[in-house]
Design goal:
The protein has helices at 2-56, 63-72, 76-96, and strands at residues 58-59, 99-113, 116-128, 135-149, 152-160. The chain is α+β, with helices and mostly antiparallel strands. Helix 1 runs antiparallel to helix 2 and helix 2 packs antiparallel against helix 3 (76-96).
Length: 162
């Protein structure tokens, strides 16, 4: 009888150890998945931040380069539309002698799906016009669709949130 109980105890111990090993494996896998999701969300948020800073930081002395930076950080329909208006936009910036310096104050990834994410962005820009020379702060709240394209995260849609 003792031999039977000892055998059952050993078998139970083996089953418990295997169960804990399986549970540990599942926890490691879930941690890995969560870490990957967080890293991907951070990459989308960084793409939105970079694109918005490019969009709200302009200097009339180098307007063409600044506009090209916006185009380079964009893709899809947004890029196509911005490229079509780039010459007019550059002209307005140069003629009004605008200098803006933008900062992103917060980002939050609302959703991710495949190679696209919707990122909420809060930003501030300090605007100086050639006419009055004083800085005027502007607050921006934006919904930015970011698309991963060849390992780069670029704006594909920008919406202003009231």
């Amino acid at each position: 009888m003792r031999v039977l109980l000892a055998g059952l105890a050993k078998a139970a111990a083996v089953v418990i150890i295997c169960g804990f090993a399986a549970l540990s494996g599942i926890m490691v896998w879930q941690h890995h998945q969560t870490t990957q999701r967080h890293e991907r969300a951070e990459a989308f948020a960084d793409g939105a931040k970079k694109g918005i800073i490019n969009m709200i930081s302009l200097d009339f002395r180098k307007a063409k380069e600044d506009v090209q930076r916006v185009i380079d950080s964009s893709t899809g329909e947004f890029k196509d539309e911005f490229q079509q208006r780039a010459a007019d936009f550059t002209k307005v910036v140069e003629q009004s002698k605008v200098v803006t310096e933008g900062t992103v104050t917060a980002t939050a990834v609302e959703s991710m799906d495949g190679n696209t994410a919707l990122v909420l962005v809060s930003a501030t820009s300090r605007v100086t016009n050639g006419g009055n020379g004083k800085e005027e702060p502007r607050e921006w709240r934006l919904k930015v669709t970011v698309t991963e394209e060849d390992g780069q995260y670029k704006m594909s849609k920008v919406e202003f949130v009231p």
